[in-house]
Amino acid sequence: MHFNPYGGSGAQVAAAVATLAERGGADASEVLATAIAHGMALSRIEAGEAAEILAWGRRLHAIFAAPEGERVDLVNDLLTVAACRPYIARHDGKAPHLHYASEDAGVVERMHAYTAGGLAHLVCEEPGRLGVCAREECGVAFVDTSRNGRRRFCSTRCGTRVNVADHRARQLTT
């Protein structure tokens, strides 16, 4: 499935930050590495900024875990915080593309705008494509990019663990 740049990478950053926040214990270097791995052009995140981003991540995780019908209101709450004027940017040899935070905005504001914008596009276009891994011990937030949009697990590994455990449980009862 192809997503626009914000619905795609913005939503992917949202999932990654939501997962970092849910797991707890992440530091500034992990938050920075996560942002960079998903295409954000950041060079540095201070400890205080990381704490703010992780607090935001807990709000993001609630969206991934919420029933589809509740996501619009939750994303609108995020957009209220992240509200700014969108504009079309051309930089670094890239084609014109939409930005929701000015280039001189701080790291936290950029993270708010990027993730809220990405989730807004996704909730409008494909609201059922957000999820949290169905394996109880996992909690990883994900954007379902599968062809049929019916993913329940963050990875094949988690799905296999659940299926093997279910199989073993059935074998014990027979």
TrEMBL record:
<protein>
    <submittedName>
        <fullName>CGNR zinc finger domain-containing protein</fullName>
    </submittedName>
</protein>
<dbReference type="InterPro" id="IPR010852">
    <property type="entry name" value="ABATE"/>
</dbReference>
<dbReference type="Pfam" id="PF11706">
    <property type="entry name" value="zf-CGNR"/>
</dbReference>
<dbReference type="InterPro" id="IPR023286">
    <property type="entry name" value="ABATE_dom_sf"/>
</dbReference>
<dbReference type="InterPro" id="IPR021005">
    <property type="entry name" value="Znf_CGNR"/>
</dbReference>
<feature type="domain" description="Zinc finger CGNR">
    <location>
        <begin position="129"/>
        <end position="171"/>
    </location>
</feature>
